[in-house]
Amino acid sequence: MVIVGVSKGRGWGGSHYLETFKEYEYSGPVYPVNPKYEGEEIQGFKVYGSISSLPDNPPIDLGIVAVPAKVTPQVIEELGQKGVFFAHIFSSGYSELGEEGKLLEQQLLEKAKENYIRILGPNCMGIYNPKGRIGFTHRLPIVSGPVAFVSQSGGNAHRHAFAGIIYGYNFSKIVSLGNQIDLDLLDFLNYFRSDPDTKVITMYVENLKKGGNEFVQILKETTKEKPVIIWKGGKLEAGHNAVKSHTGGLAGNIKLWKSMARQTGVILVNNFKELTEMIQTTLILKIPKTLGTAIITGGGGPAVELTDECEAYGLKVPKITEKAQKKIMEFIPQVNSNLSNPLEFGANGGHVNMIKVMKILDEEPHLSSIMITNNPEWYASAKLDMEVVVKSIANTISQDSDKNIISIYNSSRARKETIDMINEFYAKTRENGIMVYDSPGAAAKCIYRLWNYGNYLRARN
Amino acid sequence: MVIVGVSKGRGWGGSHYLETFKEYEYSGPVYPVNPKYEGEEIQGFKVYGSISSLPDNPPIDLGIVAVPAKVTPQVIEELGQKGVFFAHIFSSGYSELGEEGKLLEQQLLEKAKENYIRILGPNCMGIYNPKGRIGFTHRLPIVSGPVAFVSQSGGNAHRHAFAGIIYGYNFSKIVSLGNQIDLDLLDFLNYFRSDPDTKVITMYVENLKKGGNEFVQILKETTKEKPVIIWKGGKLEAGHNAVKSHTGGLAGNIKLWKSMARQTGVILVNNFKELTEMIQTTLILKIPKTLGTAIITGGGGPAVELTDECEAYGLKVPKITEKAQKKIMEFIPQVNSNLSNPLEFGANGGHVNMIKVMKILDEEPHLSSIMITNNPEWYASAKLDMEVVVKSIANTISQDSDKNIISIYNSSRARKETIDMINEFYAKTRENGIMVYDSPGAAAKCIYRLWNYGNYLRARN
Questions:
Q1: What is the DSSP string of A271-316?
Q2: Burial (Cβ within 10 Å: 0-12, 13-18, ≥19) of residue A175
Q3: What's the complex ipTM?
């Protein structure tokens, strides 16, 4: 590991990366380079005056370049000559600034090719790899997980890195792509396709620099093995302009992306929230065989809302079978109840009855999702053990059930006293295979998309 | 005030209402009636054996009836003969159960007409009127506010009553309609239209029992004076079935409701969350004259997302004028910045620069909304005073500005330590006329709808 361009102050740039290697206790040697501070120590690391003077053993596996843009071609040449195969160029000031910057990128790429070194960036935050103890900023979780994220925005890479833990997932790697003069979206897609640590590949993409057909081919091969979720940024007119200003590229037409998704089984999402929800969905839920959804809730008004929102995003809320209705009637009176679907039992809608009904629904052939509403704050005020309550819900479906349990819960979280308990509810539901959404609309979108992915896979086979 | 049908135990029904009159310190006399407990005391109130034996002075203004459905026609007759003009029938077991119940409703209505008494319900939770110290359940805020809510679902009435305070608004009155055999949606619309305490009228409606044309006429008159927000429940197929089971009515076609909204200026929303956001919007924001929105945020990726979401819901993100761009260039370098719209300043995007840019945008004629992103957790960690920070943002637009400041902020609220500070941020922004949304999509929907309402008003004049 070599970091070219460090200074003594704290802050952004090379010194920032140096701090992170220290923070994450990176196991290999770390060599800061700056002729100005040759022989001195920065943050406990000995500073080298040049790349050529660095030790040869062990070989250096990554160079992080944070020097003024104009100097970078020279630095890349030196790194290549030292035998470094891979460099992340943090520096900005290239094609995002216009013609002069484009020329500089060409020079950089030529030097890289001549010296057999691959480049990530320039103008990017680089890599977060918790297993390898590499992170692009402070205080990231050093826990590895099943999600890979490739981002054409450093801001979104940063935001996602911190959001994962809130939503209950961790990352195998996050890559901030930058200007993609060498390594690009396709390279990382290929890499994550065969990365055993990655179970779901996710991307923030504004535009495809090259290789549309190749991208489609790789996607087709990849979605057979693991889900690929793409958040496409820059959809309409002003969004296109924003992309142009951001990465200097032309945002692809969203219609083309939709058509590409149909061909490849890619799951498209529209924004950051949908991305996080879709990731959780692929990690927690089984691929639903049907759109059929049973809704159990308290009160006629909420039952109508849940039904409306499910239908608005493509789910079906079909009547349950007469057989199931008869079984339910054995313990719930018809008066003030709705026993067809949405199911709603008025004063008979307590937890015990809900559990009994869910067990009956597990046998319904035309349903794939059982949607309930939960309020952990009630459980807490009733002094119920969260683990026991959640397990009682999770166990309503058999081990080999093809159904998912979906819970709708949204707290304002306005009172401090409830936060621990709410966090426990989320943790326990995830552990037990129950996916909690903050609204029925969010749930319906995700379940529909997962069903659609399943549909694609079934049609391919 | 008379409550017919009380028992000694705590719980639902008449005793429940008795408890609430005590809890809210209702100022008038309260007379529980039950021949079984004649002369005894329940919760400190003397129980009467019959309606006819109640004191004549002061006159009784409201009867709450919570006896078995079959007895209610007789009770209504007795209340009418005692000179009571208004009764809320809590009891259920009427048309929602079928033919027999429908007959009972007819009897009830005949008795009411014969005895000059108006009925709310049956089968409803009744009224929440904080000014009058009346509430349909425990622990409601006894603070009066500008929002009226008429609900065809007791569950949604209950939920909204508690949600208001979380979202920073209070209610003039909430009415749970029930089966509407006498007083209906139209009556309450008319009432709230001329209620000086009500600034915005909101409704949860599943179906219109009668008077479609009359409804349209009253709405047209009402929207001239105050906004009317309607959440229509039961939109598609299964939603219609859910409505049928809930209130026994046929859900009107959503297309008809949309056309009605176009004719009347009613603001339609799709779900509970949209309802609460739209209410806040009408209370906090000025009606925007244009769809033009300026976006200021940190980072290119977030700028693209905000732009995409604004455009997805109908807002425009036009370039700012060259004049304004030149003013901004005086203190923000063009390098690594986007100075057209969305505005994004890379490393130059601190609070002070944001404030300066907002002041320049206040002069832009083609913009009505200035959308920023805030993170109160940063303010707190930087030890900034929340009041000072929020005021510095609010004061960027002049007193007579026609623009709104919109803030996008969404916290996971996963850490207890941050809750007080986040709550303070919401309180201060509301006080200072800044509306905070949890996503740009939520913001865009609300601003578009408010603009559309303004458009309707302008076209009428």
A1: SHHHHHHHHHHHHHSPPPSS-BEEEE-SSHHHHHHHHHHHHHTT-B
A2: buried
A3: 0.92
β-partners of residue B149 are B174, B202
* Angle at the Cα of B56 from the Cα atoms of B53 and B59, rounded to 5 degrees: 130
CA distance B219 to chain A (A): 23
**For a pLDDT cut of 90, what percent of chain A falls above it?**
77
pLDDT at residue number A410? 86
What's the mean per-residue pLDDT of chain B?
A: 93
Find tokens 């009925």 and name the residue.
B119
B370-379 b/e with 16+ CB inside 10 Å = b?
bbbbbebbeb
| pLDDT tens digits, one per residue of A146-193 | 999 999 999 999 999 999 888 999 999 999 999 999 999 999 999 999
Which residues of chain A lie closer than 8 angstroms to B420, CB-CB?
Answer: 416
Which chain A residues have a beta carbon less than 8 Å from that of B317? 238, 241-242
CB atoms within 10 A of CB A292: 21
Q: Do residue B304 and residue A242 have CB atoms under 8 angstroms apart?
A: yes
List the one residue out of A365, A196, A335, A3 whose CA is nearest residue B123: A335
The whole-angstrom distance between B150's CA and the closest CA on chain A is 13
pTM: 0.94
For residue B27, CA distances in Å to A104, A337, B46, B135, B173 come to 81, 38, 16, 13, 17
Position A248 scores a pLDDT of 65
Q: Chain A interface, mutation test: which of B237, B276, B277, B308, most A Cβ atoms within 10 Å? A: B308
Q: Would you say A178 and A123 are in contact if contact means Cβ atoms under 8 Å apart?
A: yes
* A274 contacts A231 by C-beta, under 8 angstroms: yes
pLDDT over threshold 80, residue A276: yes
Asked whether the beta carbons of A128 and A180 are under 8 A apart, the reply is no
Closest CA to A320 of A306, A333, A339, A307: A339
pLDDT in tens, B315-353: 999 999 999 999 999 999 876 678 899 998 877 888 999
Q: How far apart are CA A54 and CA A34, in angstroms?
A: 12
> A–B: how many Cβ contacts below 8 A?
205
Among B394, B413, B393, B404, which Cα is nearest to B444's? B404
The strand pair at B41-42 and B45-46 is best described as antiparallel
Nearest-CA distance B112 → chain A (Å): 25
What residues of chain A lie within 8 A of the CB of B159, using their CB? 301-302
Within 8 A of A419 by CB-CB distance, chain B residues are 413-416, 419
